Amino acid sequence: MNRLSTSQQQLTRGPRVSFERARGIYALHVTRDVAHAKVQLKEGDERIGATTRILNALAKANIAIFLIKLHKSGLTFALAGSNLSRAEATLSHFDVAVTTRRDLAVVAIIAGSMREVSGIMTDISDALLTAGATIYETGDSHDSVQCLIEEDRLNDSISRLLDTFELPESAVEEHPLYANTRDDQP
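The structure assignment produced for this chain is given below.
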């Protein structure tokens, strides 16, 4: 019986290929012209019902929202800046206090396996605060941490994050948000 040696077997199978990204931070995704809304429910409102009606109205108006936070007395969320006036018009049909601003951006810090990178939030917040940015909202997933900050602090924030994570400028990618548009919108 003619057997191949281990090194011959490896040569006939080809080189080992990994489909996993290396661990650690490898990119920054930037989204400009983001708005933020804070909806304060009226005292005595039934929170679940009121929140559900508001979210359904925004969905019916075809306004995509993200970074949604449900609070005891209201909710906050982000949306495309170009959708802000439609969102304000939609929210005006409710007896709620609404505060909005449009001059924000999202910077998302991307890693192959975010949960295995210890101290990441400390590094991110230190970099953003050193750049003079206020962090309005955060969100996370298995491969990213998203931070909503002032757009006028974005360039300094990107520089600080690139330095913190020792990334080249080529690691920064722009990811625009597009407003949803339909003819039957308010």
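Interim note for the steering committee: Residues 47-60 form the longest helix (14 residues). The two ends are 79 Å apart (CA to CA).
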